[in-house]
Amino acid sequence: MKKMLFFLSFCFFILILSVVFLSLRPTVTVINYSKNRLYLHFDEVKYDVEPNPEQVDRIVKSNPDIVEPGERVKLTISLTSVMKNAVEFNIGWLAGGRYSYNATGGGGQNFTITSKQGECSFYLSVFDGYNNYLLEGRKRKFCIARLLPNK
């Protein structure tokens, strides 16, 4: 009985390690090809549900990730969002300034997390100007969920 319990614990441990460390979750790699610093905001929300005032306040007060010109950032979907139904992954950026009044560019892209459609990985190349970006899907053999870009 002890051997069986040890074996099951070991298998569970290996499963958790593979989910956490292997690239089984969908990813979006943001590459900054602009001349300015990017201020990157991203979140995972329930699809087609307006945020409540507390969520809006949290989003407004959150610190954006900063992507310098020529750098890239890899964004991975959380495991809890992969397990839920009807979740949307939103990415927004401003170039040149943290707030819209002093920004020189910006844009955004939304993805729906699905189980059958879409791609496992995307490259999002950001250029100078407003909504000037290129979205490329990258093929991977296996992932837990997929991303479907919203138009």
Task: Give an overview of the whole structure.
The chain is built from 3 helices and 9 strands, in the order αββαββαβββββ. With 151 residues, the protein is α+β, with helices and mostly antiparallel strands. A 5-stranded antiparallel sheet has the order 3-2-5-6-9, with no helix packed on it. Strands 4-1-7-8 form a 4-stranded mixed sheet, with no helix packed on it. A hairpin with a 6-residue loop joins strand 7 (121-126) and strand 8 (133-138). The longest helix has 20 residues, at 2-21. The model has no long low-confidence stretch (mean pLDDT 84).
List the helices and strands and how they pair.
Blueprint: H1 2-21, E1 27-32, E2 38-46, H2 53-61, E3 65-67, E4 72-76, H3 79-83, E5 87-95, E6 105-114, E7 121-126, E8 133-138, E9 146-149
Parallel strand pairs: 1-7
Antiparallel strand pairs: 1-4, 2-3, 2-5, 5-6, 6-9, 7-8
Give a quick rundown of the structure.
Helices cover 23% and strands 38% of the residues. It contains 3 helices and 9 strands.
